[in-house]
Amino acid sequence: MSAGAGRGDHLTSVPPEEVGDVPGTTPAEEQRRGLARRSFLARSAAVAAMSAGAAAVAAQPAAAAPASGLRVPRGAAPTAVEDPTTLTLVEAALAMAAGTLSAVELVQAHLERVERLEGTYRAHNALLVEEALVAARRADRRRRSNPYGGLPITLKDNLFTAGVPTTANSTIFADFVPPYDSTVGARLVAAGGVVVGKGQMGPLATTRATTPAGVVTTVNAWTPADPSVSPGGSSSGPATAVAGRLALASLGTQTGGSITAPANAQGLTGLKPTMGRTSIRGIIPLSFTRDHVGPLAKDALDAAVVLQAMAGPDDGDARTLGLPAVPDLVRAATPVTSGRRAALRRRTRVGVPPDFLAVTGDELAARQALLTTLRGVRGLTLVDVTYPEDWDLQSGTFNVVRLPERTEPFRPWLQQDLTLFGVSVLSWLQGLLMSGDEWVTGQRAKHHFLAEVLGDLLGRQCDVVLQTSPVPFDVVGLPEIAFPIGLGSPRPDGTTLPLGTILGGAPYEEDRLLEVVAAYQSVTDWHRRRPADPVVPAAGARSLTATAAPEVRLDAIAAAEQTQ
User: Fold this and answer.
1) Residue 24 belongs to a domain
2) Which pick of 80, 171, 335, 399 has the fewest CB atoms within 10 Å?
3) Pairing state of beta strands 292-297 and 249-254?
4) How many structural domains comprise the chain?
5) Is 33 part of any domain?
6) What phi, psi does 308 have (nearest 5°)?
7) CATH number of the CATH domain containing 500
8) Interatomic CA distance for residues 403 and 381, integer angstroms
9) How far apart are CA 291 and CA 287, in angstroms?
10) pLDDT tens for residues 450-491?
11) Identified catalytic residue from 2, 170, 258, 279
């Protein structure tokens, strides 16, 4: 358990009588949740039927409108900003609104770190330095009309960026320059984001970031001198960019843990929304029924701001249409207190599965401390839960049914030249070898599993559930949030690694996940911990190549084991 507490800059007090200690929901909320569950079950079946027709790079649909009404939470702005890169996204917005920080100063501070540390972190495979400075100057001129204008962000390199190469770190897309932006990227820029670079990633979003040949590139910001320590994949670069303070926030994609794993590996808050909550238009695909895009941020409130800016319907992605309205995520992630205790606005049962404490050492101590802290949150009740009978099947045997989906749009390249897939070729070949009846059986099993989760685990037993793996909820498209809960013991070289966990929820209830994590972060400071800067050569210049780190390489077997 952290000795210190998180800053209370954005705390709101509510009367104790408005927050209960007994779990439950109002009849109106229960009706809304029931409708959302039925809608999600039907939509999941429809998406599975559509997946065979997904194209690798879709034709450009009409531009999607950005989200509107994004607000800055009330709070005290930092009075003196010595190093803007230490601020959260919301703190930076408050400082700019108060006039104690400009967008140019904020962006320049991050670019100075990019100049000095990119050669060590290798978080990006493309940098947009001049473009970022131009955007920052424009944001300062438009401050009154855009309170978030000028916030430096990193976009994973499978998100389209008009006129800027989008390679997915692969040989196949090495020369691809999109004619338009991804919907989510365009919405973030419209909301004030300034793109400083394209984040390194596992080739075609399969493993931790490596070259197509398997040579490790991006390092974990907590252990920059040891590339054998994974930064998490496949959104490795976006996570390292935020943890290493090269950007305030970033966008990653997740098919099998690619947001939650890097977040837990590097002490960040990573949110994978419900399938369809964010558009995948303008994103190089991996699996049509499992691809999600979401934020990697410094805390729950920052993650809420980013998701609020980019969520919502998009005519270019049918998965986003006809869904429940996006709730006020920023309000949900603004912590409240009741009688000096952290509190929830609505009573919530947090499920603790039977294997959650089946760990040892630092990880066990961190999870036990997490449960102790959660027990002190007013309106939150911990409950023991049991898994559906086929929980392990979905994370094991039936998890392979995702492979034909990723193989299908890339079949022309597989027929052309297997070497285009580099070290991860084995997982692509697995997709070719699965029969149609096996795929159909897997889809039936998935929908049976989803009905069990929504009808029992997230219905009768609890409202949100702690998880030991992201895979089951990735399979069925349910939302998950990863967040830090501790630090491990010092390693021989003196470095430490963050410890994190994952919380999963019901469809379209990202607000509930954010509310629980925000309450936890209001009384702990693990999300405030940052890694020490690496030691770099005095003449270190901005570079996209490594500086004196030992080479680590994944072979085909290791790549297949890591594949998302």
Assistant:
1) no
2) 80
3) antiparallel
4) 1
5) no
6) -60, -40
7) 3.90.1300.10
8) 39
9) 5
10) 999 999 999 899 999 999 999 999 999 999 999 999 999 999
11) 258
